From TrEMBL, chains A, B:
Organism this protein belongs to: Amorphus orientalis
Protein name, entry field: tRNA-Thr(GGU) m(6)t(6)A37 methyltransferase TsaA
InterPro entries found in the cross-reference section: TrmO-like_N (IPR023370), UPF0066_cons_site (IPR023368), YaeB-like (IPR040372), YaeB-like_sf (IPR036413), YaeB_N_sf (IPR036414)
Xref: Gene3D superfamilies: YaeB-like (2.40.30.70)
PANTHER family noted in UniProt: TRNA (ADENINE(37)-N6)-METHYLTRANSFERASE (PTHR12818)
UniProt keyword annotations, A-Z: Methyltransferase, S-adenosyl-L-methionine, Transferase
Gene Ontology terms describing biological process: methylation
Length: 165, 165
């Protein structure tokens, strides 16, 4: 991925702290083996929560899809413009799903396969094995489903690779 | 909101740090005036990014909807089960969109009204005025739109208030 660095204006302090509530176990051990997009893979991921958070799983067995937030711990944070592999033009990071971003929080809409005492099994996630989990949210179609949404730069890209999830 | 506290197993250390990349300006100055759900309001929100992140806005003018991630800075983090206002039963926080959660990251799917040199104007967000912004992601209908998604506990709730966004 070509990058345009914009550094120098930030220091290393942080404004808020995250806790890792669990880990996501996937078949992918390095970036090169990851699917470009969750929709490319039928693989399941096994999410294991740390013990204090397991009571938070209650009622997930009534839910079909969740939004998973996770920490892209290998991603650079000092990049604001990139040339994604799907294109030859530079775009702002906030117009892309690239893992490099000021706060490298990954997001996947995933289907629940099964709920366990210590976590859940899902499809539709393409992150590295061992990725730290930040949050699980129920997906409400009434507010989260926007099938009419458009991403113009992506629709006119010269290189028709799918986006990263 | 009734809460079931589960504390004592965690210390105050954090595993990763967030930077606030901007602020979200909304009409709502306190929790009681916030709409319960973004779909209840036609109000617009004005997002202003800190200067170093503004080049990241490039190409957002070609995009219709974004996923906004923000920091719910007033939310408690020591709660794993709650009785939401929409129900009389306790549920795990990960089955709800309540702001109280171990990592209080808020998420809204918002429609872009306009893109400015320093940020953007959107509809479909219900957070407090001044909420810190963490990330902006383009919404890809191909991977993010799941109109068939179901939230069983919510569909059978006794008190038919809408969910929080």
């Amino acid at each position: 991925m070509d990058v345009v660095e914009r550094s120098g204006d930030e220091d290393n302090s942080c404004d808020a702290g995250l806790v890792f509530i669990g880990r996501i176990h996937t078949p992918w051990r390095d970036r090169s083996s990851c699917p470009r997009n969750a929709s490319e893979s039928e693989a399941t991921a096994r999410i294991v929560l740390e013990a204090p958070y397991r009571p938070g799983l209650g009622s997930l067995d009534t839910i079909s899809h969740v939004i998973l937030l996770y920490w892209l711990h290998q991603a650079r944070r000092d990049i604001v413009e990139i040339v994604p592999p799907t294109d030859t033009r530079a775009h702002g990071v906030f117009a892309t799903r690239a893992p490099v971003r000021p706060n490298p929080i990954g997001l996947s809409v995933s289907q629940i396969v099964s709920v366990h005492a210590d976590g859940l099994t899902v499809t539709g996630i393409d992150c590295l094995d061992g990725t730290p989990l930040l949050d699980i949210k129920p997906y409400f179609a009434s507010v989260d489903a926007k099938p009419e949404a458009r991403v113009g730069w992506y629709e006119t890209r010269p290189n028709p690779l799918p986006p990263r999830g």
